[in-house]
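Because showing beats explaining, we think one record worth quoting, sequence and C-alpha coordinates together, and here it is:
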Amino acid sequence: MAAPFSCQLRVQFYHTDAQGRVFYAHFFAFLEQARCAFWEALGFDEATVRQIEQETVVVHLEADYLGPAAFYDLLRVEVSVEALGKSSLRLGYRIAQARSGEEIFRARTVLVQIDPTTARARPWSEAFRQAILAHCSPQGGQA
Protein backbone atom coordinates (compact mmCIF):
# COMPACT_ATOMS: atom_id res chain seq x y z
CA MET A 1 0.00 0.00 0.00
CA ALA A 2 1.35 3.40 -0.95
CA ALA A 3 1.74 6.13 1.62
CA PRO A 4 -1.39 8.26 1.97
CA PHE A 5 -1.61 11.52 0.05
CA SER A 6 -1.40 14.50 2.40
CA CYS A 7 -1.89 18.23 2.21
CA GLN A 8 -1.90 21.03 4.74
CA LEU A 9 -4.78 23.36 5.55
CA ARG A 10 -4.80 26.43 7.77
CA VAL A 11 -7.82 26.88 10.07
CA GLN A 12 -9.45 30.21 9.31
CA PHE A 13 -11.44 32.31 11.79
CA TYR A 14 -14.75 31.52 10.06
CA HIS A 15 -14.14 27.80 10.67
CA THR A 16 -14.45 28.36 14.43
CA ASP A 17 -17.46 28.52 16.72
CA ALA A 18 -18.20 30.46 19.92
CA GLN A 19 -15.84 28.16 21.85
CA GLY A 20 -12.97 29.05 19.51
CA ARG A 21 -12.81 25.52 18.10
CA VAL A 22 -13.40 24.32 14.56
CA PHE A 23 -17.14 23.80 14.17
CA TYR A 24 -17.61 20.08 13.45
CA ALA A 25 -19.27 20.56 10.03
CA HIS A 26 -16.15 22.30 8.70
CA PHE A 27 -14.19 19.08 9.07
CA PHE A 28 -16.29 17.67 6.23
CA ALA A 29 -15.35 20.63 4.03
CA PHE A 30 -11.69 19.93 4.89
CA LEU A 31 -12.20 16.37 3.60
CA GLU A 32 -13.60 17.70 0.32
CA GLN A 33 -10.73 20.13 -0.08
CA ALA A 34 -8.19 17.36 0.51
CA ARG A 35 -10.03 14.99 -1.83
CA CYS A 36 -9.85 17.55 -4.66
CA ALA A 37 -6.14 18.09 -3.95
CA PHE A 38 -5.74 14.29 -4.13
CA TRP A 39 -7.33 14.24 -7.61
CA GLU A 40 -4.86 16.91 -8.69
CA ALA A 41 -1.95 14.94 -7.23
CA LEU A 42 -3.07 11.98 -9.34
CA GLY A 43 -2.50 14.18 -12.39
CA PHE A 44 -6.03 15.33 -13.18
CA ASP A 45 -6.41 18.90 -14.48
CA GLU A 46 -8.91 21.44 -13.14
CA ALA A 47 -11.64 20.52 -15.66
CA THR A 48 -11.32 16.82 -14.82
CA VAL A 49 -11.40 17.47 -11.08
CA ARG A 50 -14.65 19.39 -11.60
CA GLN A 51 -16.06 16.53 -13.67
CA ILE A 52 -15.07 13.91 -11.09
CA GLU A 53 -16.70 15.89 -8.28
CA GLN A 54 -19.84 16.64 -10.33
CA GLU A 55 -20.25 13.00 -11.31
CA THR A 56 -19.73 11.38 -7.90
CA VAL A 57 -21.97 11.21 -4.88
CA VAL A 58 -21.01 10.45 -1.30
CA VAL A 59 -23.18 7.48 -0.37
CA HIS A 60 -21.60 6.78 3.01
CA LEU A 61 -19.78 8.93 5.54
CA GLU A 62 -18.53 8.02 8.99
CA ALA A 63 -16.38 10.14 11.24
CA ASP A 64 -14.79 10.29 14.67
CA TYR A 65 -13.95 13.57 16.36
CA LEU A 66 -10.84 12.96 18.45
CA GLY A 67 -9.68 16.42 19.50
CA PRO A 68 -10.02 20.15 18.87
CA ALA A 69 -8.49 22.52 16.35
CA ALA A 70 -8.48 26.29 16.75
CA PHE A 71 -8.03 29.43 14.66
CA TYR A 72 -4.80 29.44 12.65
CA ASP A 73 -3.83 25.86 13.50
CA LEU A 74 -2.00 24.16 10.66
CA LEU A 75 -3.59 20.81 9.92
CA ARG A 76 -2.34 17.88 7.87
CA VAL A 77 -5.07 15.98 6.05
CA GLU A 78 -4.26 12.51 4.74
CA VAL A 79 -6.31 10.73 2.09
CA SER A 80 -5.89 7.02 1.46
CA VAL A 81 -7.57 4.64 -0.96
CA GLU A 82 -9.12 1.76 0.95
CA ALA A 83 -11.03 0.02 -1.84
CA LEU A 84 -11.78 0.55 -5.52
CA GLY A 85 -14.92 -1.07 -6.88
CA LYS A 86 -16.52 -1.05 -10.31
CA SER A 87 -18.30 2.26 -9.66
CA SER A 88 -17.38 2.94 -6.02
CA LEU A 89 -14.35 4.20 -4.17
CA ARG A 90 -13.78 4.03 -0.41
CA LEU A 91 -11.44 6.70 0.93
CA GLY A 92 -10.01 6.99 4.42
CA TYR A 93 -9.07 10.34 5.94
CA ARG A 94 -6.97 11.37 8.88
CA ILE A 95 -6.64 14.95 10.13
CA ALA A 96 -3.81 15.77 12.51
CA GLN A 97 -2.19 18.84 13.97
CA ALA A 98 0.71 19.44 11.55
CA ARG A 99 3.19 20.45 14.23
CA SER A 100 2.54 17.79 16.87
CA GLY A 101 1.13 15.01 14.70
CA GLU A 102 -1.78 14.60 17.14
CA GLU A 103 -4.70 12.99 15.32
CA ILE A 104 -7.88 15.03 15.82
CA PHE A 105 -10.33 13.65 13.26
CA ARG A 106 -10.76 10.40 11.34
CA ALA A 107 -13.29 9.67 8.61
CA ARG A 108 -14.23 7.35 5.79
CA THR A 109 -16.34 8.05 2.71
CA VAL A 110 -17.70 5.87 -0.05
CA LEU A 111 -18.10 7.66 -3.36
CA VAL A 112 -20.09 6.34 -6.31
CA GLN A 113 -19.58 7.47 -9.90
CA ILE A 114 -22.93 8.33 -11.51
CA ASP A 115 -24.23 9.14 -14.95
CA PRO A 116 -25.46 12.74 -14.53
CA THR A 117 -28.41 12.25 -16.90
CA THR A 118 -29.78 9.10 -15.26
CA ALA A 119 -28.37 9.51 -11.73
CA ARG A 120 -27.49 5.79 -11.84
CA ALA A 121 -24.16 4.28 -10.94
CA ARG A 122 -21.73 3.81 -13.80
CA PRO A 123 -18.25 2.30 -13.92
CA TRP A 124 -15.19 4.45 -13.40
CA SER A 125 -13.37 5.41 -16.58
CA GLU A 126 -10.27 3.41 -17.39
CA ALA A 127 -8.16 6.59 -16.98
CA PHE A 128 -9.54 7.11 -13.47
CA ARG A 129 -8.99 3.47 -12.49
CA GLN A 130 -5.43 3.54 -13.80
CA ALA A 131 -4.63 6.76 -11.91
CA ILE A 132 -5.93 5.24 -8.66
CA LEU A 133 -4.13 1.93 -9.23
CA ALA A 134 -0.89 3.71 -10.13
CA HIS A 135 -1.05 5.58 -6.82
CA CYS A 136 -1.62 2.51 -4.65
CA SER A 137 -2.92 -0.99 -4.32
CA PRO A 138 -6.41 -0.77 -2.80
CA GLN A 139 -6.91 -3.05 0.20
CA GLY A 140 -9.94 -5.14 0.72
CA GLY A 141 -11.23 -5.47 -2.85
CA GLN A 142 -14.68 -4.04 -3.57
CA ALA A 143 -16.04 -1.02 -1.74
Q: What stands out?
A: The longest helix spans residues 24-41.
